[in-house]
Specification:
The chain contains twelve helices and ten strands. The protein has 301 residues and is α/β, with parallel strands linked by helices. Helix 8 crosses helix 12.
Length: 301
């Protein structure tokens, strides 16, 4: 049994296609739990229509709290299931998306937290494929999770062990739900499977963009602005401190030491240099990693 968790907000334009693609999943026993985050368009009417047509859909609506906390509220409210999957409101899933994910997690010890994630297939509003340069990810570990997520949450499938562990995080400590879940998974040495195949179309539109091409100078200026944006300034160190506050006693000694290196990086210049020199802590793309190291020196991670 797998429970699909979806947060909606003003999603009337694409949500029918996404719900249909989820309901058309093959070889899985699924149900869908939807939390609407205060939509002001016809999203709730569409959800009501689908609930009346399909017995495996439940939804509820609450005041707007933002995407990350809305998904975390779903985590808290989700009934018991073998597996869970995050779903965006505007993608389209291949019919074997969930069955492929579950097949990669089956056979892992039942008492071990597990997480599946995958590549994306970017498409435009009309579902035309957008060329996208894939970057080979390094092995998923805490050092990488402290700086970025390995894949978007809409590719995630995870078991109930990881869900229960994630509940300890607390809703006030949630910023970006999928990144937060990935940090917890790596901190607890979960089994993580990264699939280099994509089983869903990741729709790009005015409210959901993974970036555009720039000239060389614009490329670097854009990256630096993105990493040093005041809304995200020191977000990584803040999130690392939250992780330490909640999960430190559940972590291996190796992960504790790595987390301490990150959390304490701003104590003095030698601590910053120690973080920069740690090859297991950093970002996948070389250009991103260079900017990350510059921000470490500036004390703005």
């Amino acid at each position: 049994m797998i429970k699909v968790l979806m947060s909606t907000y003003n999603g009337e334009k694409y949500i029918r296609e996404q719900l249909d693609s989820i309901l058309n999943q093959e070889d899985v026993d699924l149900s869908i739990l939807i939390r609407d985050d205060g939509s002001k368009d016809s999203t709730l009417d569409i959800l009501k229509e689908y609930k009346e047509r399909y017995s495996n859909i439940e939804y509820y609506s609450e005041p707007n709290i933002g995407c990350g906390q809305s998904f975390y509220k779903l985590i808290l409210d989700a009934p018991k299931s073998d597996y869970y999957a995050f779903a965006d409101q505007d993608d389209i899933w291949d019919s074997n998306k969930l069955s492929q994910a579950i097949s990669k997690l089956e056979g892992v010890s039942e008492d071990k937290p597990t997480l599946y994630c995958s590549w994306i297939r970017p498409v435009d509003k009309e579902l035309n494929i957008i060329p996208f340069k894939e970057t080979d990810p390094i092995d998923a570990n805490l050092g990488m999770a402290l700086t970025q997520a390995i894949a978007p949450g809409c590719s995630y499938v995870f078991n109930d062990i990881l869900l229960e562990a994630f509940k300890k995080q607390g809703i006030d400590n949630i910023d970006i739900h999928d990144w937060a879940l990935f940090r917890v998974a790596t901190a607890l040495d979960s089994y993580i499977y990264f699939d280099r195949e994509a089983y869903f179309s990741y729709r790009q539109h005015e409210n959901n963009l993974i970036g555009s091409q720039h000239n060389f100078i614009g490329h670097w200026i854009g990256r630096f602005k993105r990493f040093s944006n005041k809304d995200y300034q020191n977000i990584r160190s803040r999130m690392a401190k939250k992780l330490r506050d909640v999960y430190y006693n559940d972590m291996s000694q190796e992960n504790r030491e790595k987390l301490d290196t990150f959390v304490n990086y701003d104590s003095n210049i030698s601590s910053r240099i120690k973080l920069i020199r740690d090859r297991e802590i950093g970002m996948i793309k070389k250009s991103d990693n260079l900017i990350f190291k510059i921000l470490v020196l500036l004390g703005r991670v």
